[in-house]
Amino acid sequence: MNIEVVTHPAKEPTNRPALLFVHGVCHGAWCWEEFYMPFFAEQGWDCYALSLRGHCGSDGRENLDSFGLDDYVADVLQVIEQEGIHPIVVGHSMGGGITQLLMTRHPEKIAAAVLLASMPSGGLTLIEMLGVLKYPLGIIALIKLLMGRGITPKEAMRLSFVSNRVTQNQAIKYAALLQPESRRALHEIANLSVPAGKVDVPLFVIGSSQDIIFRQPAVLRTAAHFGTEAVVLDKGCHNLMDDFDWRESAGHIQRWLSEQIQAAE
Predict the structure, then answer these.
(1) Rounded CA gap, 95 and 68, in Å?
(2) Is residue 38 a contact partner of residue 70, using CB atoms and an 8 Å limit?
(3) Structural domain boundaries, residue 60
(4) Is the pTM of this model over 0.90?
(5) Predicted confidence (pLDDT) per residue in 162-211, tens digit
(6) Domain count, the chain
(7) Residue 242 belongs to a domain with what CATH number?
(8) Is the dihedral of CA 101, 103, 104, 108 positive or negative?
């Protein structure tokens, strides 16, 4: 299986672990390229981002609905092997669920993990799901997207991924690049279950109280599931890496990464 990998080398050669970014539902490696990858490369991190099978430039689009979360975990492991890295994995949304599976099943393959606006183990509560339904125009746009009908930039702005917190140019990009998601993966997301308790790798959990998909209670629940604490930002849409205030989430992650490097020295 050919998996698309986008790279952004560190500004200067480094002995640090690489960062490996894993995207969420309907996205691809492209969602990390505008802000996060250049920022972290400037801070001295070799950056890699993959497009999961069936997404963007990776093989398998014709079989998309047959792929599940285990297949996506296999994609991450494949990239780790082919690139020869022992990375810090940064997983967003569904990518956070994939990262949870990776760090509980294959902790020896990664150096650390960051869960960014991640889906929680056990899924959303009924109240949380009803909260998402309060934004019907975004739901309509998402249904169109999942059906493969395509969306306009105006509809992209309404999606719960961004909630009108990106520029018009970004909305144009989203309308062009967002795609349907695997039906099997969507079903498995709702039933994600990973073992609770401390994991064998350093873990950082961050989200936003403005995220209308995984709100503050879900972020705190994810952190508590793994016996750690979370950073919950006051501002920021679900796609924190593309939000108007992306520097705030990136800054928190960078500070935590620096602490891990200092602790290891």
Answers:
(1) 12
(2) no
(3) 5-126+183-264
(4) yes
(5) 999 999 999 999 999 999 999 999 999 888 999 999 999 999 999 999 99
(6) 1
(7) 3.40.50.1820
(8) positive
